[in-house]
Amino acid sequence: MPHRNVVSWTSLISSYAYHGFLRTSFALFTDMLESNVNPNTHTFSIMIRECTTSCLSVMGIQIHCLIMKFGLEKDEFLGSALVDFYLKVWNSIDEAFLVFDGLWRRDQVTWNVLISGFADARGVGEVLRLFHEMRVVDELRPNDFTFTSLLKCCSLIIEVEQIFGLTMKYGMDGDVVVGSGLVDMFGKCGNMDLVRGVFDSMEVKDIFVWSSIIASYVRNGSPEQAFTLFIRMCRQGVKPDQHVLSSVLRACAESDNLESGVQVHAQMIKNAYQADCFVGSALMSLYANSKELCSVEKLFRRIENKDIVAWNCMLLCYAQMEELATFYSISLFRELCQSNTLKPDTATIVALITSCRNVLDLAVGIQIHGLIMKLHLGRETSIGNAVINMYSNCGSVLDACKAFDDIVHKDEISWSSIIGSYMQSEIELEAVNLCKEMLAEGIYFTNFSLPLCIAASAKLAAIDLGKQFHPFFVKLGLEGDNFVGSSIVDMYSKCGNVEASQKAFKELEEPNEVSFNAMISGFARQGNATKAIELFQKMEKMGLVPNGVTFIALLSACSHMGLVEDSLALFNVMCQKYNIEPEPEHYACLVDVLGRAGRLEEAYCIIENDGSVLAWKTLLSACRNYENAKMAEKCATKVMQLDPTDHSSYVLLSNLYSREGKWKEASKLRQKLVNVGGKKDLGSSWLM
């Protein structure tokens, strides 16, 4: 071109800037100035927006100086670009407001840019003040961008309701953009009635509106409603995007609905999102919750550009495996470390160390802990808590204590974890002392830590200590928490105060199976089978389903009172009505009550094929009481087969032989006990 004017230069600069050639566009701008062609407002706006997009703070200041040199700083078109630059690059509301205040005329775009910046940095009060000035001073009508900016700064339901009122005043409540923002904000505030009201009033619904309402129902604990809306959306011909699909998959995971999740998976494939990392991670979580590990692995390998969330999700799946969890977790972690694009984060380390869950994993757990110390992550609270749990699960309470001491900022989970570790190792007194230290540090009890402290009191039979923990149940507003309430019921019953246990049980707002089990067990310890059975019947009337623990308590209570027929009836109810597979404790209780009544043959028939060591030992003890040497020999032989090192069977049968004058047989049994390395446990007492 022999003659280039400002339009020619600006067109070429704009083209290079549009296609991402930043250096070339700035070089052309410099050439334009050297050619004595003065830039216009459009040229400067392109350069300022490039500085904003690329966060070129110094270059943006230089462009601003040139704008002032050419006397264009008061132009409204350039003013919007400069306000946006100072807000986004310099995070300076003051500088942005100076530019805004110096403009000859402020249009709707300029006001929206300023309001949006204030919404990100200031409170709703200042934003509403600007909104008022926009309408009154410059007499401008707000549009959809204005209202979405106002909604960004809201944090309370009353503020969202005020904005909602303004949208209705200007007739914008039915706008698809504003409606989507209102649905999202009302959902975040938990008011689903208003969410549904706004949604139903909208004539046109785009994918963003559907995404907002589905996410709102998932967020507020209504996964079934979210899935129903998803079906309705698909029937109306709206194609789901990755946000909708991930929300619906979360809904399926929360409702444990794998069948619906498979249908969403089909929609995911149909709409070409099978390789999308965002949706893939959500689908992996769904299959992981349903223990479909093979499906999770296939999904993980099919994701093209895996982010760290997908890797962490796969690690968590391996960590939850019953066997070879550490092997697969370590292998995947090594694979992650070999990739040059991603680095492990805190969640990665937590997922990795979660795979160590028993004594056999301790060596691997120590190595992971060494890596954590090497990376200087041991002082981080979340990682420290995971290390405590790992050592606790692996049976190393001393190492758990060291990991606890290494944490700089100990939260409630840290204290609960170490207290739980001591409880798991049956060091109840130290657990109680830690409870007191926790309170001294200003950390209050929660619905997890308080039951641990109450359980420690129960184990120590320290009712006075338990009474001190009881007031926290009310003080912390946990009356509706059955888990904490059940621990109080259990504590009083184990300490022998059944009256206090009953009172605590009656104070529960909605007792569940755990609460009833605790109270029934309390009556069982007292030997009051009548009340235990009455409470069981009340439990059934309330529609609560008993479990194996319930029947252990009931059979134990009946055993103490010698209620043979009631025991047999309850055992049949357990097996036939509730389809509960009998455990060793159930057989032991049933054998005990039959043995006390002298019905040894009947007890023998019950456990002949399914008996455990505990049941056979119980029957052996009954045989000794009734001096039935013939059956005692059968029971002792069975116990010796199942557990050769158990001394009780040898001693009981030997004593029975001695009582009948069979000294030779008694001597052989005692010698056999010595040969297998068995010995009688030493007695112990709290009084010594």
TrEMBL record:
Pfam family of the protein (one) = PPR
Among InterPro entries, the record links this protein to: E_motif (IPR046848), PPR_At4g14850-like_plant (IPR046960), PPR_rpt (IPR002885), TPR-like_helical_dom_sf (IPR011990)
- Keywords for the protein's UniProt record, in alphabetical order: Repeat
Q: Where are the PPR repeats?
A: 5-39, 107-137, 206-240, 512-546
**The UniProt record lists the keyword Repeat:** yes
Family classification: Belongs to the PPR family. PCMP-E subfamily.
Name of protein: Pentatricopeptide repeat-containing protein
Name the source organism.
Abeliophyllum distichum
